[in-house]
Amino acid sequence: MDPARLRRSIPSALATAAVTALAIAIAAVAFEDRAAPHPSPHGHAHATPGAQSVADLTGPRDGVPDVRFELTARQSQVVLDSGFSTDGLTFNGTAPGPELRVRAGQLVEVVLRNADVAEGVTLHWHGLDVPNAEDGVAGVTQDAVPPGGEHLYRFRPEQIGSFWYHTHQDSAGTVHRGLYGALVVEPPGGAAGPDVVLLGHSWLRPGADPVVAIGTGDGPSRRDVAPGTRVRARLVNTDSRTQTWAVVGAPFTVAAIDGTDVNGPTPLHGEQLRVPAGGRIDVEFTAPGTVVLDRGPAVGFGQDPLPAPADGPVFDPLGYGAPAPVPFHAAGPFDRELTQVLDTVRTIRRGVPNVTWTINGELHPPAAPVAEGELVRVRIRNDGDDAHPMHLHGHHVLVLSRNGVPASGSPWWADTVGVEPGEEFEVAFRADNPGIWMDHCHNLAHAAAGMVMHLSYEGVSTPFTVGTGAGNTPE
Ligand SMILES: [Cu+2]
What we know:
The chain is mainly beta. The chain has 3 helices and 33 strands.
C-alpha cells in the first residue's frame, strides 16, 4: 500500500472542525518545511524497482533465540491489591503483563497469541528501535492478530535501558484496559543491585475518578532492602496523561531518560519528575527511600512509604548532567527539516462541544518523507492547550533546544517528547532505520482522534492496510 493512504480522510463528523483547521493550516504554512521538500499528499514510497517492503525489514530470521517469551492476550478480570477489580485485558493473566528482562545483544523471540481479544492485538516495543517489521503497528508493519491467531517477533536489542511493550491495535482502548508491560534491556553482565520497574497506570471506573496504581496494583508498598543499598527504580508512564513522580526521604539522581543513561547525573532533593505519557525516567537512590506517584500510591524501599512530598521544583532535563559527545550538532547542517505544529481544535457540533487535536492543521496529516542516512531536524510547536507527548517510532531524537534555549547538560535522547502548551522543541535524528514509522501523540485518545503521522523512508512500501475493512486500527 502507498504510505500516503495511511492518511485517512477527515471523518465527516469532524467536517466542522476541518473548517477551523483550515484557518489554522493557513497560519501554519509559513512555518512548515522551508528547506525541505513538502511532503506530497501522493506519498513518496511508490513501489519502484528496487523498492523494499516493510515485511522484509525483519530482525534476524535465523538462529536459536537466547531468550524466548510467550505472551497470550485475553479478556480477564484485573484485580488490584486494594480489592478494586475491573473487566480488563491481560497478557498471561496479569496487567501489567510479565516483565520482560533481556540482555543487550541477545536474540529475543516473542510469540504473541490472541486468545479472545475481539479488537485484535499486536506488540509494540516502545522506545526500542527494532527493525521495522518487528515494530508491531497494525496496518503498517503487520496485520492485527485476531482471536485464535499468533505472530512471531524476533530482534536483537543493543540499547540498554528501560522500555515497555503494549498493543498497537485499538490502543486507545486496549492499552488502558491492560495490554502492556515492562521491557528492560540489561547490560551483557546483568543489572547491578536492586532494580525494579514501577509502572504507573490509571484504571477507569464508571462514574468515579480513575484508580491510580503502581505495577499490578497498589503494592507491594514496601520492598525490604538493607539501608545503604543502592536502588534503581525505573518509572514508566503507561497512561495517556503526564504523571508526576517523586522520590522522598533520600537524595536521588535521574540515571536515565527514555532508556538512555544520563551522563554525569547530579544529586536532586525533592524535585518533581514530570514523565510524559509513554516516557520513562530511571532514578537511583540509596535506601531507605520512597517513590511516590501523583501524591498517591507509593513504594517504600527499606522503609514504610513516606507521605507524599510538598510541591517541589520541577526537574528539567534540559541542563541536567554533563555534556558528552554526540554524533551530530545543533548547528547542523541538516539534510531535511520537518515541522509539526500541534493544536487543539474546539467546535460545536449539533450543539455539542467537540474537541480534537491536529498536526499542521490536519488529522492524519500526510507521511513525511525521509531518505536513509539523512540528518533530520524537527521543530515541534504546541499552539494548543493540551500536552502532547510526541512519540516517533524506530528512532531516538536528540533534543537540541526548548523555547529557543539550547540543551546544555547531558545529551538528552528521547523517544517521547512531552510538549506542553506554548512550548517549542527542536530535535534531530539520524534516519538510520529504514521503514515506515508511526509518529504520534502518546495521549492515545489524541492519536485515535487523528493526531498521527508517519515517517516514510523513500523506496519503502507496506503490503498492509490501515482501516476498519482490513481490521487494522492501530490507534
Ligand atoms: Cu496529544
